[in-house]
Every structure is written in C-alpha cells, then in structure tokens.
Amino acid sequence: VQLQASGGGLMQAGESLRLSCEASGIIFRFYDMGWYRQAPGKQRELVAAVTSRSTINYADSVKGRFTISRDNAKSTVYLQMSSLNPDDTGVYYCNARILKADYWGQGTLVTVSS
Q1: 65-69: which pairs have CB atoms within 8 A and are 24 or more residues apart?
Q2: What digits encode the pLDDT tens for the residues 53-100?
Q3: How many separate helices (H) and strands (E) can be counted in the chain?
C-alpha cells in the first residue's frame, strides 16, 4: 500500500493551494480517506475526511476555507485550501482507513508566511 501525497509548498497568507494523494495497492473506493496535519510541536490533527460514501467532515478551523474531494477513478483524494494563514503551517498527511486497516502517506509540507 502506498499513499503518495504531493502539492505542498511555501505560501503567503491568503493564497490557495491544492494537495493531492494518490493511493495504490488498495481498492480505493472502499476506503475512508482523510487529511491530517501536524504543526511543529503539536499533535497530529484531523483536517478533513471523506468516507467511501462521500460523507464529509472538517475541522472547525478549516470550515469554509478547505474542500476535500475524491476521485475514485484516479484513486486520488484532494484537499483544496484557500485563504491560507500561518496557523495552517504543518506537514499534511494522507490517511486511508477501512475496518482495522489504517494507512498513512509520507506527508507533504505546507508553510504559510504572514
């Protein structure tokens, strides 16, 4: 199983960025997918998740600014981020989950400067 996250970078506050995570080695459409982030010195936290049935939830801090989506045909989950602020800085990890199986990608760094 491999979750390849991409799209991170150095951004200015107010800008937009899209992260992608392509999965391989799993039957993607059956998995709940999520984006987590870990800021320096903090615990990893859920940013957004989309279930296999396309139910979506967001962390309160990103509601109205971030949009998660999935393309089952491409085995890819996306995180569209807008109105970025320095608090969004961190390593963003892709997660795939089904029953007791839980897989993580390697993370992609997003840095937002003010």
Answers
A1: 68/33, 68/35
A2: 999 999 999 999 999 999 999 999 999 999 999 999 999 999 999 999
A3: 0, 11
